[in-house]
Design goal:
It is built from 32 helices and 41 strands. By secondary structure, the chain is of the alpha/beta class. β17 and β18 form a beta hairpin. 38% of the residues are buried.
Length: 990
């Protein structure tokens, strides 16, 4: 056979698959039905029963023993009539191919359905017959209906009998009047729409029935599925299918049992029978009050003439679920006041919940129809106090010099309220409070609302474990407590400190100490007096003057003042590494009598004291890096005061530098910074946590009370947004005012020459613009897909932003192969510097990117413009600075990070900022390198911004952060927020 010839077997297969089904093979089967009679009663109930064909006379005499039995039949080989033959249930349940397979399987399944639930009754000839009367499965009826499709006829076994399977039957329980004044109950049956006479219907389990009739000498059997109630079923199976209700019991039946019967099954009532209204259930609620402010509820259902039914138990026959449901729906409407989501019949309440239950819930339940409330115990103990709270505040000195115990006494309706549980309730934002004897009161009174607010400000719950306390740094908070209280009993020392700080704007002038080799300007003298006043009270603070106003000089004056007042312990100054030399130089210049040691390496602190332990230094100056590395050694010294210069280095409380500073022992801590907040108010909190540790003890509460409203615009639902934020800003400024001193150059250093600032917008060249727009679209798609989880993708996002910022400067910074594309910003800078140098001026040029400074330096060399450079890689920093100060180079290239602070470069009068930074304070510090005390010429500041690039978005963010700074530290409205995903998304808006 060729490989291309089809396989005959394959060809025959598809024909077999598409051919019409063959007619059934095997002997056909029929289901034979007959009316059988069980053996007569009187024999042992455990003895096997036998079945015999029922006759009309026997069926009429003992209808309760009649059953409907079925067995398989096969055609007679000789006559074709349906006969028992050789077919049995066992034969059909065994595998074989003698009988039609589908029909045999149907009989085997019928046998399984009939035997699914067995009864104790047995029959001796069960191999021949299956009795349908005891079949409980609802599968029987669809299975019988399937017989017709399979060609299995339902036939009568005896000659002349007929069988008919109907689609359905209807069964009702008829209630009619009896001749004796009672009632009769009997089933009414219809099969196939035809009324069945009394006596012939019989139940098949609870799922159907059959009816028989011996009329005309034959037997007619009809069967059908039906829903049969228990009462109707019992009557159909009884010898006499009639139940009599005596006249004396008629009322009981109709009033107490009829409606329950009607709910269970279909009932047909004769019009002559008058049915009374159904009995209404009553929910009985029993409330028991105990001595421990506890109330327990239990519930039952009550019906007339019957014992109470437990709540939630399965419904007894006399209960009315629909009526009970209506009562429970009414209960559900008033129950939420009890605190539970659903009413379950049983409930336990204690404390305020119990008071609510007795005062509000139980009366509301009692008022409902169908509910009765029984109260046992002493419900009157839950008494509500409604008077105005009277508050008394006092303080008691403790062994901790920074804290006082705060005594707060609240009285309502003559009852003294214990403060510890009251404090807990207020702190946990509860709305009410209960005393031990059951008396309770609302915590929503305005006086208590204010007390809650002040307690929130004072401390977190964890800090009051041994009772409420208030820090000595919380002077303005104490004033609020005094305003709130009806009486005030402050401690003498606390009152003195409070009065002193309340007058902080008029602190007494401190005389300039001996040994000061400088003449203080008026504002510097005021700053020194303020520091001296805080030091006298051992309080810290933040000196937040603008850069260049002489904060170092003011602190050196404070050192001399403290020494003259008898302070013998050393002072510690922590500053950035680049500023250590400035402290040494200015101390030698302005306070030559002070012994100053610069500890710029680990282990250097060992040289501060001699072998006898005497101090060799009046002041130790170290860096934040050395403090971190040598933390234990610095913590072992008892410092008189701690100075944190450029305190923005400790603006993050999670850093080691902040933790190391917090662990130092010092009577007072002073922070020096022109930018106590650069990005967010949390930075201000971190610095205040070091300088005034009790002012805002809780970072979480500070975020909620100040950062949320002021920065993020989060206000309570019942407050007006703008007014609430303004009030919180005012409150913050009032809180910090005694501990923060800030002066701006334009306000106090009037001798400073003018400073003019200008934005220079630079248009990118055509090739540069095309490249930038292409990269922007690519990075925008990538970044916007990552902003849903900014914290996780922060590195990737900022890498893309940095890429675009570099590309705004020069294509060669991103792709060396694009170095041939000219940088418009670099061209603009060189044009400006050429004019500056030609006119005899000198300029500082700042950039955050040393790679761009490389390009600038290369271009300046090509143009013949002399310059010097300072960045993070510069080893001889002081020599480079001196070269610019004393030399002739007109341009000083400086990286923003390396030269943003710690330098005085008044020799320059032009400043060029080549790329905007997120933090406007960093740029201001850079400008202040030249616009400071000692400058005699006007200063011109130029910010070069590439038009249509990400740099314009950065400038917009700078403006918003600057508004936040001025709103808190100077004047203005709360505007800014923290940098968010929306901010970053805005960077890429078209």
């Amino acid at each position: 056979m060729s490989s291309r010839d089809p396989d005959p077997a394959v060809g025959s297969l598809w024909r077999a698959l598409t051919a019409a089904s063959d007619p059934p093979r095997g002997i056909p089967l029929a289901l034979g039905l007959d009316l059988q009679q069980r053996s007569a009663r009187g024999r042992s109930p455990w003895a096997p029963k036998t079945l015999t064909a029922a006759t009309a006379r026997a069926a009429a005499a003992r209808p309760e023993d009649v059953v409907l039995a079925v067995r398989p039949l096969m055609p007679s080989p000789s006559t074709g009539a349906w006969v028992k033959g050789e077919v049995t249930w066992d034969v059909l349940r065994r595998p074989g191919d003698r009988f039609a397979a589908a029909q045999a399987r149907w009989f085997a399944e019928l046998h399984g359905i009939a035997r699914e639930v067995r009864t104790l009754t047995t029959y001796s000839d069960l191999a021949d017959w299956l009795v349908l009367d005891t079949v409980e499965s609802r599968l029987l009826w669809p299975h019988l209906a399937e017989a017709d499709r399979l060609g299995i006829p339902l036939v009568g076994v005896r000659p002349g009998s007929t069988v008919e399977l109907h689609a359905e039957a209807a069964v009702e329980l008829a209630v009619r009047p009896a001749d004796d004044g009672g009632l009769e109950l009997s089933p009414r049956v219809s099969v196939g729409g035809e009324r069945v006479e009394r006596g012939t219907p019989r139940p098949i389990g609870a799922t159907g029935l059959y009816a028989y009739d011996f009329a005309d000498g034959g037997l007619r059997i009809g069967l059908a599925p039906a829903t049969i109630g228990r009462a109707a079923r019992d009557l159909l199976a009884a010898a006499t299918p009639v139940a009599a209700v005596p006249a004396s019991e008629r009322g009981e039946f109709l009033e107490q049992h009829f409606h329950a019967l009607a709910r269970r099954e279909r009932v047909h009532t004769d019009p002559r029978v008058r049915i009374p209204a159904p009995p209404r259930p009553v929910l009985r609620v029993r409330a028991t009050t105990g001595e421990d402010n506890r109330v327990e509820l239990s519930s039952t259902w009550a019906y007339p003439g019957t014992p109470d039914a437990p709540f939630g138990a399965d419904g007894a026959s006399h209960r009315d679920p629909e009526a009970e449901g209506a009562v429970l729906a009414a209960v559900a409407a008033v129950w939420p006041r009890a605190g539970d989501a659903d009413f379950t019949g049983w409930h336990t309440a204690q404390g305020l919940d119990a008071a609510d239950l007795v005062a509000h819930v139980l009366p509301a339940l009692e008022a409902l129809e169908g509910v009765r409330v029984d109260v046992h115990g002493t419900p009157g103990r839950f008494r509500e106090l409604t008077g105005r709270p009277e508050i008394v505040v006092s303080t008691v000195e403790t062994t901790d010099p920074d804290w006082f115990d705060l005594g707060i006494i609240v009285t309502i309706d003559g009852r003294r309220i214990p403060f510890t549980p009251l404090f807990s309730a207020l702190t946990l934002r509860r709305s009410r409070m209960m005393l031990a004897d059951g008396a309770h009161f609302s915590l929503r009174h305005p006086a208590l609302d204010r007390l809650r607010e002040l307690i929130d400000e004072a401390a977190e719950l964890a800090e009051w474990e041994t009772g409420p306390r208030i820090s000595r740094y919380q002077q303005s908070l104490w004033a609020d407590f005094e305003d709130l209280a009806d009486q005030s009993e402050p401690a003498v020392s606390w009152r003195a400190a409070a009065e002193a700080l309340r007058g902080v704007r008029t602190v007494p002038d401190a005389p300039e100490p001996a040994g000061l080799a400088a003449s203080l300007r008026p504002y510097q003298r005021d700053g020194f007096s303020w520091l001296a006043f805080l030091w006298a009270n051992r309080l810290g603070g933040i000196l937040a003057d603008d850069m260049g106003l002489g904060k170092t000089l003011q602190v050196l004056t404070l050192f001399l003042h403290a020494r003259a007042a008898g302070e013998a312990r050393p002072f510690l100054v922590v500053a950035p590494t680049s500023v250590l030399g400035v402290w040494r130089e200015e101390a030698a210049r302005f306070a030559p009598g002070l012994r100053v040691t610069v500890a710029d390496t680990t282990g250097a602190l060992e040289d501060v004291t001699d072998a006898a332990g005497a101090d060799r230094s009046d002041a130790v100056v170290t860096s934040y890096a050395v403090l971190r590395l040598d933390e234990r050694a610095f913590q072992d010294v008892d410092w008189a005061m701690l100075i944190l210069d450029e305190a923005q280095f400790v603006k993050n409380p999670a850093t080691r530098a902040h933790r190391a500073a917090a662990g130092l022992r010092a009577d007072a801590v002073y922070a020096l910074t022109g930018t106590p907040l650069e990005n967010t108010l949390s930075e201000l909190w971190a610095i205040l946590a070091l300088t005034a540790p009790g002012l805002f003890p809780s970072a979480a509460r500070f975020r909620r009370d100040y950062i949320g409203p002021i920065e993020k615009g989060k206000v309570p639902e019942n407050q007006e947004g703008g007014a609430f934020r303004t009030a919180r800003l005012s409150r913050l400024r009032r809180r910090i005012r005694p501990f923060v001193l800030r002066r701006r150059k334009e306000d106090v250093a009037v001798e400073l020459p003018a400073k003019q600032e200008q934005l220079l917008h630079v248009e990118l060249g055509a090739a540069h613009r095309a490249l930038y727009d292409t990269v922007l679209q690519r990075e925008r798609q990538k970044i916007l897909g990552l902003l849903a989880d900014l914290d996780r993708n922060r590195f990737i996002v900022f890498r893309s932003i940095t890429l675009l910022r570099l590309l705004s400067l020069a294509p060669g910074l991103v792709d060396p192969e694009r170095a041939g594309i000219r940088s418009a910003k670099l061209d603009a800078l060189v044009d400006q510097l050429s004019d500056v140098a030609a006119e005899g001026h000198r300029a500082l040029v700042f950039s955050q990117f040393t790679s761009f400074l490389d390009l600038v330096e290369e271009r300046l060399n090509a143009e013949g413009i002399a310059h010097v450079r300072l960045d993070g890689g510069t080893r001889r920093r002081e020599e480079v600075v001196a070269r610019f100060r004393d030399g002739d180079e007109p341009v000083f290239l400086v990286s923003l990070k390396a030269g943003g602070f710690g330098l005085t470069l008044t020799e320059a009068d032009y400043v060029f900022l080549l790329d905007p930074w997120w933090n406007p304070a960093a740029e201001s510090q850079a400008v202040d390198r030249t616009h400071r005390i000692g400058q005699t010429r006007p200063v011109f500041v130029y910010r070069l911004i590439a038009t249509g690039t990400i740099e314009e978005k950065v400038v917009a963010l700078q403006e918003r952060k600057a508004r936040l700074f001025h709103a808190v530290m100077d004047a203005g409205e709360p505007f800014a927020r923290a940098l968010t995903a929306d901010d970053i998304r805005g960077l890429f808006d078209a």
